Amino acid sequence: MGTHLAGKVAIVTGGGRGIGRAIAIRLAADGADVVVADLNAATAAGVAREIAALERRAADVDVDVASAEGRRRLVAAAINAFGRLDILVNNAGIIRVNRPQDVTEEEWDQVMNVNCKAVFFTCVAARPHLAASGRGRIINVASIAAKLATPFWAPYGVSKAGVISLTRSLAVAFAPDRIHVNCLCPGPVETAMWAQINEEGAPRMGLPRGEFTRMRLQSTPLGRLAQPEDVAGVAGFLCSPDADYMTGQAINVSGGMMVH
Ligand code: NAD
Fold first, then answer.
1. Has 156 been annotated as catalytic?
2. If you measure from the C-alpha of residue 244 to the centroid of ligand 1, how many angstroms do you get, rounded to a whole number?
3. Of 251, 223, 227, 226, which Cα lies nearest the Cα of 237?
């Protein structure tokens, strides 16, 4: 915590709850002004109010990052509200739990559009402003699902593997602009998404309620699921001067469940 992000402006997508909310609040605590972007206008506005209570400037914008128009409005919101953009956190994401033989093409497209295509094109849309910053930072939220066999959410795993790949490509492409691009690979984090996996997904996986969480806990050496703040801490580090020589990395935040 500190004031090293004073004068900097961050966008956090999916900032209305869960991991995005925690990252938005963490960046504000480190001094940044924050644009909280979410499909859900009410939760985005609520988090913006939490940030204002920290005596930082905050703006909220309801956007669907899966639409080109939404992405344009997103970047414009930061420039209109604060006149600059220094940090972009692509956190918005969705999961659908289904066996491969039950996945529809519509579901595939939806997951890929939100989790992967939107991340790429939001990075591209933000690039000129991040370059103007002289110290641009992009953090994409992937998942350890990118590195695991994911029989019950194959499209999600593919989308997150795509996020790792695009992070590496953009890290090289944007390095001359002094924009660093890294991604986070969380393991299970106790959010609404995790609850959804357990509630909707467990029956489709043929597991009793709560069993999937128990299995994941068993394979987590640190012995607990993550809280959103565990992920936000690493995002804060990546935006700090301590991470100034890091780009193109996919960092596990998984309590030791994933070690490569
Ligand atoms: P969550 O479902 O609790 O919150 C996601 C937020 O993103 C919601 O506020 C939602 O409204 C918003 N959102 C969804 N689609 C959007 C869109 N098209 N445009 C704008 N906003 C949109 O999820 P979470 O657990 O906080 O997950 C955040 C990110 O972390 C996601 O990318 C997720 O895939 C990733 N992740 C989560 C876990 C986990 O266990 N919870 C693990 C690894 C990675």
1. yes
2. 27
3. 251
